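Friendly challenge for the regulars: who can give me the structure tokens for this chain first? No prize, just bragging rights.
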Amino acid sequence: MVELWFYSGRIGNCMFAYAFNRCIADELKLQCQLPKGTEITGFPNIALDSIDVEKHDQKYTIYKDFISNPKTCINENDNMKWLLEKQFQGGKLQSYNDCLTIQKVLSIPNIEKKWIVTLGNFETGEQYLPYREKIKNWFTFPKIDFNKFEFFKIHSDLGKENYYARTEFTEIHKDDLVISLRLEDYTSDQNLDRLLTYDYFKIILESRKWKDIYIITNPGSIGHNDQYKWIKEFYQYNPTIVRCYDPVQSMAFGSKFNNIAISQSTYSWWLSFLSDAESIYYPIPKNGPFSFDDTNHKGVDLRIESPNFKYVDELNRVILSDDYYTKIDYKNKKWKD
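First reply, four minutes later:
Bragging rights claimed.
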């Protein structure tokens, strides 16, 4: 059995933890389980793998309050194999060699005879590329319920008296662009290096002629005036702002677009990875976990070598050429000489 005992973060991080386990389980022809009550059980196929969370209370308490290796947990047996990312053992990822990957787990002798228990987020995109079509099936979206959605235009007053005007959704066109604009947590001092603003997305907006622009953002950002300043800059493109309090529904809607521009967030990455979009604009920003020279998130890299991923260099304000990947030493995260 492959079993996931712990989640950290929100839906994007949880999806990585599940996908990591499910890929291993699929290769080993084992069962994969996860606790009920998580956001990702909003995917119909994933819900089938969920079990009562009460069975995990003992180990969850240890993980939450105690960072050391949980091999000291009660009820351990000789057939159990714990697999932990380095940072969960009090260490820090320094390079890709420190990362626990699907391929490393599968290379362990007699791993198919072990009860596999994992702890981590496993956010290196390249390891999931061989499983992309299977992952799309596991994370099959539910039917979109438009009763859960609200659509807005930026009011022409630009915040003087009114902020948004309600509008109606019609249909998605092939030449529309959807922007996954992650706000809220990213506008805090702690996470400000993750925030990509209008100035970044302008590179994509000016790269070609779009029919209509849509922006999906955190639902709490609509109606909270302190977030408005980040949205109103898009006014000249007359975007439709999308609000939905169900994260799986919101992701399902965004995945329907043929052109997707993402923020440096795991939620945005999954929205694009599960889509059939022709063009996915992935940021190589100046700062934050998606940046090329980031020092705070070593071993985290969600770039993948796929023809529909287009890489946007914020520093030089260009969309990189299609041979971008031939110029990268991926494992050592540096440019080739």
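The first helix runs from residue 11 to 28. Residues 53-76 have pLDDT under 50 and may be disordered. Your move, everyone else.
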